[in-house]
Amino acid sequence: MEEEACSFDDHAFAPMVSLEMDVGMFRSQWQFCDRITEYLSDILGQGRSDPARYSNFLSVATNELVELAFRSTSASGKISFDLCRSPTFNRLRIAFPCEKADEDTSERASKDQPVPGAGSEFLLKSDGAVLLNDLAAIFRAAIRIETDGALGVRIIADFPLNEDFR
Fold this sequence. Notes:
Layout: E1 14-22, H1 23-28, H2 31-45, H3 51-72, E2 78-85, E3 89-97, H4 103-110, H5 121-124, H6 126-139, E4 142-147, E5 152-160
Antiparallel strand pairs: 1-2, 2-3, 3-5, 4-5
């Protein structure tokens, strides 16, 4: 993971697109995961020398993160998907409500510290952590989970803009 991505500085990122929808609507159809992924991946590919290749490559990671949010939220409220770009990274942020976070997570979040594995039951399971670690390694991305207040979770993924895919 590169040091710039780990700085968590949102000010270095320019907004590209934001999408928000009701959690109940989002969870009503699994196909929303595919549609949202396709939309976000197309935006991610803009401005690249090979937009289709870049979009295709990152659609795998984007899809896994969108599906992780789908499986992790059961609370009512809004889910949002935001894409931002800095000179060296694309940032995907997915924010959604969750019903349960453990006490250690809430305490660390109140100190504005990133919380790996924060949030709902699924994110606390080792499968969620393994998935995030695998995605980070494959895509050379910085991926983290943070609590957003007492009942919310944010999945934040910083993908390098360089096109040297392996």
